[in-house]
Amino acid sequence: MSERVFNFSAGPAALPEPVLRCAADEMLDWHGSGMSVMEMSHRGKEFIVIHAAAEAALRELLAVPQGYKVLFLQGGAIGQNAFVPMNLLRGRKSADYVDTGEWSKKSIKEAKKYAAVNVAASGEASRYMSIPKQDAWRLDADAAYVHICANETIGGVEYHWTPDTGDVPLVADMSSNILSRPVDVARFGLIYAGAQKNMGPSGLTVVIVRDDLIGEPLPITPSAFDLKQQADADSMLNTPPTYAIYIAGLVFEWLKAQGGLAGMAARNRAKAQLLYDGLDASSFYVSPVAREDRSLMNVTFKLRDETLDAAFLKGAEARGMVQLKGHRSVGGMRASIYNAVPIEAVEALAAYMKEFEASHG
Ligand code: PMP
């Protein structure tokens, strides 16, 4: 078998190796069932066990309080950009959105099809290199909800605080930082995330939603996107992404064995610090994001001399480090260091960055 690389992909992203090994072992015959999980009926007794265990583990990891539904849906976070206004407007006309970069912009654009959108704050003045402080937000007390992107995967800015939106439900796109640290779910009305960064394969979308927000969809809402219909059917109004749920369940068990989210938070802080300390100590590299808003998941940086970008990436690849190129919309570099990226990968990158600077600086 060929050696595994250090994978810094923004998503689909690295998965824990023990999870992949377990899935490989169980590929042809899951627990004596004589079938692969892929071949099981979603309503059969085996898959019901897998589904329930995944939900229970996720609830335990995030300490999801009573009164919240956990749904395993499809359509990705992009789908949620429509799903959220369709289901959460509940007779209101408008929603507040905070614009912190590429992914919030996409959410805003989609929501405008269904709602009057008030952009309550924007990071544009800082070229999206910082999160607007809450005292500058212009929230509307009549808004149906307030939407934020908890971690901007492309720009590399992350909320390290939870906004206070009073009685207006807070909705967060946590696609790229869910399960990276503990969060107080009770502060949120709805949390959504595509699985393919911190939870498993693409195809699964996790939605955690407070019960009282369920039940007043826009009449045009497709049944597959109807929160009430999906909640009533335990996410099985249609065939759920069974294999992705199974792998996510294995990832949740792996996370529990790592000390849960407190354990992950400590590891994630240490990994990010290694890179940010290196960037701060260097004049060869630039870390463009405001310090207090730096993402612990997506570390974006630039080489001061952009003509060296290609050589930097080539050298990284030769050392088994892949997917470091920044998103095409912003350029530069991006190291995505989600839960499953081991400290060894980050140490290798930090060492390579020093070496590259010494030979090209
Ligand atoms: N929001 C964020 C923060 C993301 O990082 C992504 C994917 N990179 C999306 C939304 C879109 O997710 P999906 O492709 O699963 O629809």
Question: How would you portray this structure in words?
Answer:
This protein is an alpha/beta fold. It folds into two domains: 18-257, Aspartate Aminotransferase, domain 2; 260-360, Aspartate Aminotransferase, domain 1 (Alpha-Beta Complex), CATH 3.90.1150.10. The protein is 34% helix and 16% strand. The chain is built from nine helices and 14 strands. It has helices at residues 17-25, 45-62, 76-88, 102-111, 227-232, 242-257, 260-280, 309-318, 343-360; strands at 6-7, 68-73, 94-99, 116-122, 146-149, 151-152, 157-158, 170-173, 190-194, 205-210, 285-286, 298-303, 321-322, 333-336. A seven-stranded mixed β-sheet has the order 2-10-9-8-5-3-4, sandwiched between helices. A three-stranded antiparallel β-sheet has the order 11-12-14, with helices on one face. It has a two-stranded parallel ribbon with strand order 1-13. α1 packs across α6 and α7 runs parallel beside α9 (343-360). The chain is globular. The two termini are 37 Å apart. The chain binds 4'-deoxy-4'-aminopyridoxal-5'-phosphate. Residues 11, 76-78, 103, 149, 153, 173, 175-176, 194 line the site of 4'-deoxy-4'-aminopyridoxal-5'-phosphate. 4'-deoxy-4'-aminopyridoxal-5'-phosphate is lined by residues 11, 76-78, 103, 149, 153, 173, 175-176, 194.
The molecules bound to the chains, other than polymers, are: 4'-deoxy-4'-aminopyridoxal-5'-phosphate
How many helix segments? 9
| Rg value | 21 Å
What is the N-to-C succession of helices and strands?
A: EHHEHEHEEEEEEEHHHEEHEEH
Low-confidence parts, pLDDT < 50 over ≥5 residues?
Answer: none
Strand order of the largest sheet: 2-10-9-8-5-3-4
Number of strands: 14
- Structural class, judged by helices and strands? alpha/beta
Beta-strand residue percentage = 15-25%
CATH superfamily of the largest domain: Type I PLP-dependent aspartate aminotransferase-like (Major domain)
Q: Using the alpha-carbon principal axes, give the shape.
A: globular
State the major sheet. Answer: 7 strands, mixed
Write the CATH architecture name of the largest domain: 3-Layer(aba) Sandwich
End-to-end separation in angstroms reads 37 Å
CATH fold annotation of the largest domain? Aspartate Aminotransferase, domain 2
